[in-house]
């Protein structure tokens, strides 16, 4: 029986086998936690962004409202001035017209005369007699409703 | 894309370095024993260059941004610090405007809210021929119809040696756009300027001039209510020193004061009734023409409180164009001129005598045509052989002799004191401007000479204003009280709430109500049986008294031809309220067969006014003449 020839094995070879790329690849933990200051800074950044968005919205609303209220105030102001002008002119024209009519009425050719007591009708006030309320007769009752409409 | 190199690239660079280092240190034979494996390519120089680029780019961008920021900061510093005051002043000058303070005059209205005086906006039109961009003829041709003038006249005015020519001062508000944007051949006319100004406008022209008055060119009230109530009429619009304007020249709302939009809507309301005033004016002017008189006046007053319902003076003036009239016309004759009342004063003398119990109402007096007093002969105006007259008869026939006899029953001193008590010789308390005080001779003269009380008994020898006579007759109508004649009811806002009302003095009781009633009933007989017959109206009880007085001559004594006639009336006698006085100065023409008397000249005017008064005030008749049977209208009681 022949023995298998002994091969010399180096100490290194006797050691536990090591992957070929053990020295070239360094495993990086994917779940390495970020430092606390960075996390806080990120949170602060998020909050600031939200506050900024709110402030920008509020600013736009405030600006829009101020511009709108200014334009509507100006519109109302010009309307007021216009109304004042109209009132002045209406008052003036109304009085001029009344005066013209009265002056024309005084002309004899119009055939108008001043009211005179001779032509006035004087009515004596009615005597304050208290009347008894009339009894409700069938005629005063509301009419019966018919299903058919009436044509005229 | 991140500007930082990726972690992969870093890793590649690191592994490449390590590989190089290990290969360099490893012996050659070992390399052969090594199992074959994939080897990464070494990083080239080009790649290394490109890895350096982002940093350069970063620096470049940062420096550009920072440079811009610095430049902007410098610019900002220059604008906000160095040039700030100058720029600030320049901006304020552009943005700010100011509204100067000005005075508007409140409207004047009658008792029915008809506007009698109001402010209207007009424009003064100035021409600057030096700035004309078109020929004067062309501009004149276009302007002439707008200004109701002729083109040749306008060209003449344009040729005046002046830089600025005022063409007109009354361009109405509604004509402003037509002149302001006047274009000829598509070109806007330059050299015309319109300056706005408030101007007083009186829609009724001459009708109420003597009550309302006028405002001069400096906007100051110069007569009537415009002068006497200037303070109540003026409304100061406060100046606004700084108002911001935007780019469109519109006012910015934040810069206006709180009361910016407040409107003064108050009006000065008068007691005058425009309808009655118009009727009185028409009646008076018609009669003045008919009798060819110099002038005339009508006053209608409410005897209960002294409020004047109508006050007309003829001839009058147009307050819109006051500068065209004689200054004499601006005086309200009814309140500022004195005259000797004559017989219209007789009822007051009767009241004094009754009050002193010097006479009895039913007493009979002999009435010869003449009576001798202090060496002088006093005659009746119309010589009629009346044998005897009652006190009422003396008034009916306007007997001077009868009145002298009544006056003789009173001691001159007591009589004088009574005349003073009635306010003669004193000024009249009223809200009207420029009321003349009545005149009476000194007590010494009155008591010394018997002719003085004798002439005073028939209304001569002293002088008063028509308004004073109305006040005295109102005392007979209201139960003996001297009320204050006034034309202003107060200042009211548009809702009718009073903002100001005049405080009138408490009426002074001069006659007892019973004496006033007795005299009034005597005056009624003047209308029913005496000289005032033509004023009668069926169904109405009217009292009255005519007057015809000689006018005092400038040379002393009395003018034999110039007369002043009048008629005073009170109605209704059963509930006295209205006093109407018509005075006609120097009537010269009456129908044939008539004499110049109060009955022939002044009574017709009062009759017309009473007709209008009954209609406007809706005075019911005392004894209805036209009763409508209710059955005619089918009314069943």
Automatic annotation (TrEMBL), chain A:
- Which spans of this chain does the record mark as coiled coil? 73-100
* The entry's keywords: Coiled coil, Membrane, Transmembrane, Transmembrane helix
Write down the superkingdom of origin: Bacteria
Q: What is this protein called?
A: Cell division protein FtsL
Q: Where is the composition biased (Basic residues)?
A: 1-15
Region feature Disordered, mapped onto this chain: 1-27, 113-152
Q: Which stretches are transmembrane?
A: 48-68
Automatic annotation (TrEMBL), chain B:
Gene3D superfamilies recorded for this chain?
Answer: 3.30.450.330, DD-peptidase/beta-lactamase superfamily, Penicillin-binding protein 2a (Domain 2)
Write down the Pfam families for this protein, in alphabetical order. Answer: PBP_dimer (PF03717), Transpeptidase (PF00905)
Membrane spanning stretches: 55-77
Any idea where this protein resides? Membrane
Record keywords, A-Z: Membrane, Transmembrane, Transmembrane helix
Name of the protein described by the UniProt record: Penicillin-binding protein 2
Listed under GO biological process in this entry are: cell wall organization
Q: What sequence ranges are listed for the domain Penicillin-binding protein transpeptidase?
A: 296-595
User: Where is it mostly found?
Assistant: membrane
Q: Does the keyword Transmembrane apply?
A: yes
């Amino acid at each position: 029986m022949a023995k298998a020839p002994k091969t010399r094995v180096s100490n290194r070879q006797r050691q536990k086998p090591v992957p070929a790329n053990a020295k070239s690849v360094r495993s990086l933990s994917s779940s390495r936690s970020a430092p606390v200051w960075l996390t806080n800074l990120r949170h602060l950044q998020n909050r600031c962004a939200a506050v900024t968005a709110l402030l920008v919205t509020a600013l736009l609303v405030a600006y829009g409202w101020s511009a709108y209220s200014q334009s509507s105030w100006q519109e109302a102001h010009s309307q007021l001035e216009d109304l004042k002008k109209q009132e002045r002119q209406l008052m003036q024209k109304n009085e001029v017209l009344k005066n013209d009519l009265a002056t024309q009425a005084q002309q004899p050719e119009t055939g108008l005369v001043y009211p005179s007591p001779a032509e006035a009708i004087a009515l004596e006030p009615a005597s304050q007699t208290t009347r008894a309320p009339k009894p409700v007769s069938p005629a005063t009752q509301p009419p019966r409703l018919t299903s058919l409409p009436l044509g005229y | 894309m991140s500007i930082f190199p990726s972690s992969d690239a870093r890793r590649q660079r690191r592994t490449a370095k390590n590989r190089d280092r290990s290969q360099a240190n490893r012996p050659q034979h070992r390399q052969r024993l090594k199992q074959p494996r994939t080897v990464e390519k070494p990083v080239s120089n080009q790649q290394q260059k490109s890895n350096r680029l982002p940093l350069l780019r970063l620096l470049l961008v940062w420096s550009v941004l920072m440079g811009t920021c610095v430049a902007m900061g410098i610019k900002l510093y220059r604008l906000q610090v160095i040039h700030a005051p100058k720029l600030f002043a320049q901006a304020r000058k552009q943005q700010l405007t100011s509204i100067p303070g000005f005075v508007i005059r409140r409207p004047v209205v009658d008792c029915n809210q008809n506007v009698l005086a109001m402010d209207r906006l007009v424009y003064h039109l100035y021409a600057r021929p030096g700035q004309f961009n078109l020929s004067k003829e062309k501009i004149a041709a276009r302007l002439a119809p707008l200004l109701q003038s002729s083109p040749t006249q306008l060209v003449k005015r344009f040729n005046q040696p002046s830089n600025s020519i005022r063409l007109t001062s009354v361009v109405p508000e509604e004509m402003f756009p037509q002149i302001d944007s006047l274009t000829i051949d598509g070109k806007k006319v330059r050299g015309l300027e319109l300056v706005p100004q408030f101007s007083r406008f009186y829609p009724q022209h001459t009708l109420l001039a003597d009550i309302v008055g006028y405002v001069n060119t400096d906007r100051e009230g110069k007569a009537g209510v415009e002068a006497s109530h200037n303070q109540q009429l003026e409304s100061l619009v406060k100046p606004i020193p700084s108002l911001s304007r935007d780019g469109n020249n519109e006012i910015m709302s934040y810069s206006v004061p709180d009361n910016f939009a407040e409107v003064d809507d108050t009006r000065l309301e008068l007691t005058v009734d425009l309808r009655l005033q118009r009727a009185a004016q028409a009646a008076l002017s018609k009669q003045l023409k008919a009798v060819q008189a110099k002038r005339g006046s009508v006053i209608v007053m409410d005897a209960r409180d002294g409020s004047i319902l109508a006050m007309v003076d003829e001839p009058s003036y147009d307050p819109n164009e006051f500068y065209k009239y004689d200054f004499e016309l601006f005086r309200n004759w009814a309140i500022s001129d004195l005259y000797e009342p004559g017989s219209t004063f007789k009822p007051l003398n009767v009241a004094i005598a009754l009050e002193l119990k010097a006479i009895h109402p039913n007493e009979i007096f002999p009435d010869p045509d003449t009576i001798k007093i202090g060496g002088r002969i006093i005659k009746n105006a119309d010589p009629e052989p009346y044998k005897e007259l009652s006190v009422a008869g003396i008034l009916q026939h306007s007997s001077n002799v009868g009145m002298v006899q009544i006056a003789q029953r009173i001691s001159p001193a007591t009589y004088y004191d009574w005349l003073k008590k009635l306010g003669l010789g004193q000024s009249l308390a009223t809200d009207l401007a420029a009321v003349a005080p009545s005149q009476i001779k000194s007590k010494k003269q009155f008591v010394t000479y018997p002719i003085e009380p004798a002439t005073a008994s028939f209304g001569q020898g002293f002088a008063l204003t028509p308004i004073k006579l109305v006040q005295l007759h109102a005392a007979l109508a209201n139960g003996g009280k001297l009320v204050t004649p006034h034309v202003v009811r107060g200042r009211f806002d548009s809702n009718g709430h009073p903002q100001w009302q005049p405080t009138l003095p408490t009426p002074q009781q001069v006659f007892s109500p019973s004496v006033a009633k007795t005299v009034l009933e005597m005056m009624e007989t003047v209308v029913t049986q005496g000289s005032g017959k033509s004023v009668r109206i069926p169904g109405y009880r009217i009292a009255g008294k005519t007057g015809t007085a000689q006018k005092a001559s400038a040379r002393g004594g009395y003018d034999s031809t110039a007369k002043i006639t009048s008629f005073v009336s009170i109605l209704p006698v059963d509930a006295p309220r209205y006093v109407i006085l018509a005075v006609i100065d120097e009537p010269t023409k009456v129908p044939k067969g008539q004499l110049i008397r109060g009955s022939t000249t002044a009574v017709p005017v009062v009759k017309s006014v009473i007709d209008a008064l009954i209609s406007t005030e809706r005075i019911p008749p005392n004894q209805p003449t036209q009763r409508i049977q209710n059955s005619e209208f089918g009314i069943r009681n």
